[in-house]
From TrEMBL:
Glucose-1-phosphate adenylyltransferase/Bifunctional protein GlmU-like C-terminal hexapeptide domain location: 307-410
PANTHER family: GLUCOSE-1-PHOSPHATE ADENYLYLTRANSFERASE (PTHR43523:SF2), GLUCOSE-1-PHOSPHATE ADENYLYLTRANSFERASE-RELATED (PTHR43523)
Catalytic activity: alpha-D-glucose 1-phosphate + ATP + H(+) = ADP-alpha-D-glucose + diphosphate
Residue ranges of domain Nucleotidyl transferase in the record: 16-284
Name assigned to this protein: Glucose-1-phosphate adenylyltransferase
SUPFAM superfamilies linked: Nucleotide-diphospho-sugar transferases (SSF53448), Trimeric LpxA-like enzymes (SSF51161)
Assigned keywords, A-Z: ATP-binding, Carbohydrate metabolism, Glycogen biosynthesis, Glycogen metabolism, Nucleotide-binding, Nucleotidyltransferase, Transferase
Subunit structure: Homotetramer.
Function field: Involved in the biosynthesis of ADP-glucose, a building block required for the elongation reactions to produce glycogen. Catalyzes the reaction between ATP and alpha-D-glucose 1-phosphate (G1P) to produce pyrophosphate and ADP-Glc.
Marked site: Could play a key role in the communication between the regulatory and the substrate sites: 67, 106
Primary enzyme class: transferase
GO biological process: glycogen biosynthetic process
Organism: Sphingomonas abaci
GO MF entries: ATP binding; glucose-1-phosphate adenylyltransferase activity
Amino acid sequence: MDHRRGQPLARDAMAYVLAGGRGSRLYEMTDTRAKPAVYFGGKSRIIDFALSNAINSGIRRIGVATQYKAHSLIRHLQRGWNFLRPERNESFDILPASQRVSEFQWYEGTADAVFQNIDIIESYGPEFMVILAGDHIYKMDYEIMLQQHCDSGADVTVACMEVPRMEATGFGVMHVDERDRIVDFVEKPADPPAIPGQPDVALASLGIYVFATKFLIEELRRDAATPGSSRDFGKDIIPYLVKHGTAQAHRFGASCVRSESEVSAYWRDVGTVDAYWEANIDLTDVVPALDLYEKSWPLWTYSEITPPAKFVHDIDGRRGSAVASLVSGNCIVSGASINRSLLSTGTRAHSFSMLDEAVVLPNCHIGRGARLRRVVIDAGVQIPNGLVVGDDPDLDASRFRRTDKGICLITQPMIDRLTA
């Protein structure tokens, strides 16, 4: 198909979301769910950002590859993402590692998670493949990246973000020439290469790739037949194409979707407890760095039918209130004080309790008189009456998962050990 500049390409593309990772740096938060299924922002999941970007960009064929503890993720996808209709040439496939190639073989790497489903991809016949990680927070118009891919004639286009050079040591870093052609790819370098003309800035890969489908399938088959390959895009496919083909960098700033209130391009890896807490708490700012209220680029998710949030009691010392906070549906703040916190769906905060800079996941109960500061409370946790967290670092560390920055992760098994 001959596409001309400005003609939408997204309807001829398939988005393939890699959502099998555990996210071990989130510790107990991913004991029962994969990282893409972790709650974010009160009512959504992390994976909703990549999927919403695809829908808002105009892509109507989506596949999601799952692997690690996928039940929570699959249930969310079935509930919230079942609106795509085959009769409109739309599709939504959940693709668990199911030994389709070999009865002994799970997904060995990110590239293998696509390779094992080549027959499903070919059955739809998309002209382009947009490969996405399912565990980052950002808003991006993939149509712009698709247009650049076609205009450049590259074998692969890799989305990159400008970061301070010495902060790029944890990323795959693109070394580019003056035309943003990738001339080298270095995984987590100690001395990251700088952008030409910008000695203090590096280009970090975001794990977002665009290929022509036929070319990608050829490369996946070549890689699968290569002894010693780890079957991974970042470790094998992209470095091979940098050396033996043409790889083009796409600057995230060119396609990042921003509302009028968003000052800079927003992309976050919330893969640590500290980063996760910070990204959620940032949403409580008067003008947050990430605008969830922009109607032109909505965040799609499973929308539960819930009653409104409720605040009760108006007595000195027992006043249900929330300041600089996000309070989701079906929350009841009953004589509790909430400050700079995020309450997910179904939270109950009982009388005389206090939450300060708390990220509370769905269906938690905060007992009477509890005082919690700088915490992440996992879903379904029952906080005992009078529990105090945030005053005594040593005591907190002995009972909960406390980070170096002083954030405490609280799960129900930790609470059970306290009350045993």
